[in-house]
Amino acid sequence: MPARVLVVDPVDPVLDGILAKHGIQVERRIGLARGELLKIIAGYDAIVVRSRTRVDAELLEAGARGRLRVVARAGVGLDNIDFDAASKLGVRVVNTPGPSTQSVAELTIALMIMAARRALEANLRLREGEWYRPLGMELYGKRLFVVGFGRIGRRVAEIAKAIGMRVAAYDVVDVREEARARGVDLVASLRDGLREADVVSLHVPLTPQTYHLINRDTLRDFKRGAILVNTARGELMDTEAVLEALENGVLSAVAIDVHEREPPGERELRLIRHPRVVATPHIGASTAEAQRRIAVAVAEELARELGSLEGVEGGG
Ligand code: NAD
Fold first, then answer.
1. pLDDT tens-digit profile of 221-239?
2. What's the pTM value of the predicted model, to 2 decimals?
3. Helix (H/G/I), strand (E/B), else coil: 26
4. pLDDT at 314 over 70
5. Which among 282, 293, 301, 305 is annotated as catalytic?
6. Ligand 1 pocket, mutate which of 108, 204, 260, 294 (most atoms under 8 A from CB)
7. Residue bearing the CA closest to ligand 1, atom 38
8. Which CATH superfamily is domain 4-99+288-305 in?
9. Separation of 150 CA from ligand 1 center, angstroms?
10. pLDDT of 86-122, one tens digit each?
11. Domain chopping of the chain, boundaries
C-alpha cells in the first residue's frame, strides 16, 4: 500500500508533485476541524503542518494507534508540536529550518526601519490627508542587539552591518566563530546586551527558558527610548509589560510580526493598536520564494523518512 500524507495547513503545491514521483499519496484537508482531524489521523503515515495546527499528545496518540509515523513541520519553530509525546510514541518529527531565513530577515529589517522612521504612523495620517512628518531615527551607527545568533539572527546582523549599524549578539551556544566572521561583538549576558542597545531584535526559539524573556524585570535594563523588534515568537514577550514600557517611554517603538495569541485577542490588540507599534500577522516566511523552498524541503524530508521506513519494513 502506498504511503499516505495528510496536509492540514497551506503548503506550496510543489510538495504534491515531488511526493507523487516517490509514489506517495497526498491528501489536502486545509483548515480541518480538530475533531475531524482526531478521527482521521490514524489513516495516514505522515501529517504536514505549519504553526497553526497544534500537534499535542492527544493527536499524536490518535495517530500512533494507526499508521502515523512522521510529523512534518513546514517551517522552523517546533513549539506547536509535543516533541516528548512524539518520541515516546515513536513518531518522528521533521522540520525545515533554513528555507525561510532570508524572508524573515528581510521582514525584520523592514519592520525595524519602519519603526525607526515612524513610517506606519505617517502613512496612516497621510491616508487621512494629513501632511504630518514625524522625526525619526537613523539606524546608521546605532547599536543593534541580536538575541539568539542562529540562522535568522546572523542574517539580520549581516544586513544591519551593511546599513552601518554596530551589532552585538547573545546566544547560549558557542557562536564565537560566526560572530567573528561577521564583525559582531558577543556579550556575556542578555542584560549586558540590553543596556547598550538602541534596537533589540529577538531571534530565539520559544522554549520554557525563553518564555516571557522580555518582561517587566528585563525591560528595566533597556536603554530609554530603545526599539524592540520581534519576528520570532509572541510568547517571548509579556505583552502587557511591553505596552507599559511603550507608555512610560522605556521603549520608543515596537515592531512585531508575532503575537502571544494568534490571531490576536484583546490583550494583543491593545498593543497592536498603539500608535508607535508596527505589526504584521506572522508573515515572516510568507513569501512565494520561502514557501516554495519550504515545500521542496518538506517533500524531500518526507520522501526520505517514508522511503526509509518502507525499507526497514521490507528488510524485516
Ligand atoms: P536557529 O535555531 O538557527 O537559531 C536560534 C538560536 O537561538 C540558536 O543559536 C540558539 O542557540 C539560540 N538560543 C536558544 N535559546 C536561547 C536563549 N535562551 N538565549 C539566547 N539564545 C538562545 O533558528 P532560526 O532559524 O534562526 O529561527 C529563530 C526563530 O525564529 C524560530 O525558533 C522561530 O520561532 C522564529 N521564526 C519565525 C518566523 C516568522 O514567520 N516570523 C519564521 C521562521 C522562524
1. 999 999 999 999 999 999 9
2. 0.94
3. strand
4. no
5. 282
6. 204
7. 284
8. NAD(P)-binding Rossmann-like Domain (3.40.50.720)
9. 6
10. 999 999 999 999 999 999 999 999 999 999 999 999 9
11. 4-99+288-305, 101-279
Check if 178 is active-site.
Answer: no
Distances (CA, A) of 70 to 149, 302, 309: 29, 8, 10
Question: Going by CA atoms, what residue is nearest to atom 44 of ligand 1?
Answer: 76
HSE at residue 139, side-chain half, CA atoms within 13 A, is 24
- Chain centroid to CA 246: how far? 23
Is CATH 3.40.50.720 the classification given to domain 101-279? Answer: yes
| The three grid cell numbers given for residue 178, joined into one nine-digit string | 560566526
Q: Do domains 4-99+288-305 and 101-279 have the same CATH topology?
A: yes
Number of residues that this document lists for the chain? 316
- Judge whether 52 counts as a catalytic residue: no
137-173 in b/e burial notation, b at 16+ Cβ within 10 A? Answer: bebeebbbbbbbbbbbbbbbbebbeebebbbbbbbee
* Ligand 1 site, CB within 6 A: 75-77, 97, 100-101, 104, 147-153, 170-173, 203-207, 209-210, 231-233, 257-258, 282, 284-285
Active site residue 233: yes
